[in-house]
Specification:
- There is one protein chain.
- α17 packs antiparallel against α18.
- By secondary structure, the chain is α/β, with parallel strands linked by helices.
- A six-stranded mixed β-sheet has the order 2-1-3-12-4-13, sandwiched between helices. It has a four-stranded mixed β-sheet with strand order 6-9-5-10.
- 40% of the residues lie in helices and 12% in strands.
Length: 430
């Protein structure tokens, strides 16, 4: 799904959103728009389970609000959802709400003038912080305001194929994967036993977001919850960052991970014995892989209760082309209520970004124990930093990482050091 989240599958159809949301505030003020109510349009991911959730949410809202009808559609097709949304902002025909806003894009959309600060609603800040708890802090913009509501996370963990592990003579209940040394030894056993061609197969391609599924989860774990950029300064060239890069360099150098792009699902296909992914994938693996899951490794082997990871969150943002913002805000609260979050969890297996997911839905986790560890992990997630030029920062990092870690054309430590200055300049808004 991480690839699906980057590219939608519908025919391009931006024009249909203008009637409901308009272009800008027109003759009225932002204050007037904040109170205005009426029809609105929203966009959602193309993921089938999310579409099903969205349809029932919209139907429930519309049944009770005949004069404030919500029309939902999937994000129109394009090279990436970020580009489609950016183009809609420029054209002035973005929908009122998008239930698939990437946190990495928020600073750019904000710079375009495309987002509404949710703090502008009287209960905006309190609603958001009460729902999400302390994790909300990661989603503030540099001006101290919230331009996104933390919606749902897919805490990244290591999935492993129990049959492949058994074939290699490795414990399938508590596999030795906690430390880098254990992970490497286990990987070598898997490949030597021909249990799988590769131990793990993170995408070796150069898209900016691919580092969220190899370097970043392990960096979050190794540092105890640091972001790639903190206080306007790059953090990835630290001792911890270089340990993570060194670990992955060994995986590639020893051919335990592949440098070639894979077009299918390497874990489902049995090409890789492990995958680094979140709970959305559980439904995909059902009936295809007998799997287990453990936290991402650290150099010294932290306990699960101490291990952080990447959130892989998608959020909800309100767009400034929206005229009927009063309705949009009410719909946003309705769609992220405890009841609707429960339906999202039930239908997709993704973790609502609520303060206590496990405590909020005890019956669900009692019936679906496979998801419980992801609810526990959801309390310790790290988001992409909400800084200027976020996507360019990630691309700069990815370029240095790909060249050195994946393809071995430069020493990883030197490559990370070399990217620091440019990232610092970008984070400063240069």
């Amino acid at each position: 799904m991480k690839h699906k989240l980057m590219a939608a599958v519908l025919a391009f159809g931006l024009a249909g959103t203008t009637a409901a949301c308009g272009s800008g505030d027109g003759g009225g003020s932002a204050d007037a728009a904040a109170q205005a109510r009426g029809e609105i349009t929203i966009w959602m991911s193309n993921n089938a389970e999310e579409v099903a959730w969205g349809k029932q949410m919209v139907a429930a809202w519309n049944a009770a609000h005949a004069d404030q009808k919500v029309t939902a559609q999937e994000i129109p097709t394009g090279k990436s959802s970020e580009e489609v949304i950016g183009a809609a902002i420029t054209a002035g025909n973005a929908p009122c709400l998008i239930f698939n806003t990437s946190p990495a894009s928020v600073s750019q959309f904000q710079k375009q003038g495309g987002l509404v600060a949710l703090d502008s609603f009287a209960d905006g800040k309190s609603y958001l912080e009460e729902r999400s708890g302390k994790v909300a802090e990661q989603y503030k913009s540099t001006d101290g305001k919230y331009y996104q509501l933390p919606w749902k996370a897919n805490p990244v963990m290591i999935f492993y194929n129990k049959k492949a592990f058994a074939k290699a003579g490795i414990d399938t209940v508590k596999p030795p994967l906690a430390t880098y040394d254990e992970f490497l030894a286990t990987s070598r056993k898997l490949v030597a036993a021909k249990a799988a061609k590769f131990a793990i197969y993170p995408a070796p391609s150069n898209e900016f977001y691919q580092s969220w599924f190899d370097f970043y989860p392990l960096f979050a774990a190794e540092t105890g919850g640091k972001q790639l950029v903190a206080d306007g300064k790059a953090q990835f060239a630290s001792e911890e960052g270089k340990k993570v890069a060194g670990f992955w360099r060994t995986m590639y150098a020893d051919k335990l991970a592949s440098q070639e792009k894979y077009t299918g699902d390497s874990f489902v296909d049995g090409t890789a014995a492990m995958a680094i992914v979140g709970p959305w994938a559980i439904a995909t693996y059902k009936g295809k892989v007998e799997w287990g899951a453990v936290p991402v490794p650290t150099s010294a082997g932290k306990s699960a209760a101490e291990t952080y990871t990447f959130s892989d969150a998608k959020n909800v943002a309100m767009y400034s082309a929206c005229k009927n913002r009063g309705t949009a805000w009410d719909v946003l609260k309705f769609a992220t209520s405890k009841e609707q979050d429960g339906k999202l969890l039930q239908g997709t297996g993704q973790m609502p970004l609520r303060a206590d997911v496990a405590g909020s839905y005890p019956e669900y986790f009692a019936k679906n124990p496979d998801y419980k560890q992801f609810a526990d992990q959801a309390a310790r997630t790290v988001e992409v930093p909400n800084v200027p030029n976020s996507i360019t920062i990630w691309q700069t990092f990815r370029d240095a990482y790909s060249k050195s870690v994946i393809f071995g054309q430069q020493d990883p430590g030197a490559a990370l050091d070399g990217a620091v200055q440019k990232v610092d300049q970008l984070a400063a808004g240069s």
